[in-house]
Amino acid sequence: MAADVLKEAILQRAAELGFDACRFAPAQTPPHAGAFRKWLEDGRSGEMAWLSKNADRRTDPQLVLPGAKTIIMVASNYAPGPTALMGDADYQIARYAWGDDYHTVLEPKIRALEELLVTFGGRQRSYIDTGPVLERDFAALSGLGWHGKSTMVISRELGAFFFLGALLTTLEITPDQPAKDRCGTCTRCIDVCPTAAITAPYQLDARLCVSYLTIELKGSIPEHLRPLIGNRIYGCDDCSAVCPWNRFAKASGEARFAARSFAAQWRLRDFLKLDDQQFRDLFKNSPIRRIKRRGFIRNVCVALGNTGTQDDIPALQCAMHDPEALIAEHAHWALRQIASRTGDSISAG
Ligand code: SF4
Ligand code: SF4
Q: What residues act catalytically?
């Protein structure tokens, strides 16, 4: 089968499966391999040890799939519509986590794309965000988007809110052209970042990023950074939300990415009452489940410390006696913060 017929068949199947973009990159050393290693050496990946553990594989697709010729990059739009549910909540959750876990939504789709390639004699490996692949580099190499100053991939058509999947194959397919950097003189993402984690255009210090602090960091959140987190309880996407390229994005057609109904009903302090089982039930099949109750309630305490009022004090006083020391410590901090705003003294309840 001629290469362009194969490419056409893949594009058609990707569209049938609901992917919003599908582009092709050569399975070569990614352009930012050196910069990625330097970033790790500088310690800017924080506690994300797995990134250094498989750095060799991340910077060489041949170690992931020997004989790989092409990396097929797919994207799935999760941009919420104008009437999205989270507007009234007294907390913020990064948009990608408003609905179902994207792995469970997208993995069956990328496997289905793999099946097509098997029929053409290819060997494949595919990943939705969990593999040893520098997805953003290959997305940029394939022309799906460009590396924005925010360090996220930005697409002319999809804006900034889309998931990436990478499918490595031994089949040789004509690569697409890389996209041009269209950030121009814009600096909105850098200016909006609450923690100055984007230390320079295209440079992220993950240790400062709210996504890292509220999701990847397992222990205590450094006290000096807590006030900067505001009311964000799972991730942050401010740098993506302000990107002017979102103006061309359409709302996602995937209902499973829409905000869950609890979002409009729960207040921050209500989350403090969740026990382990209730937490697992509330966040069933949500990415939020990943940080477990202890990480989630820790984040809720930080948000209450930043935004809470006297009405939140009883719930925080209970949380101060939580058997999880991490929660108790963050609840205590939150009470001190509220007390410093209201002039009240704290009691152990
Ligand atoms: S996700 Fe939030 S904290 Fe992280 S770089 Fe973007 S704006 Fe800054
Ligand atoms: S906000 Fe501006 S600078 Fe940042 S990624 Fe988007 S276009 Fe580029």
A: 129
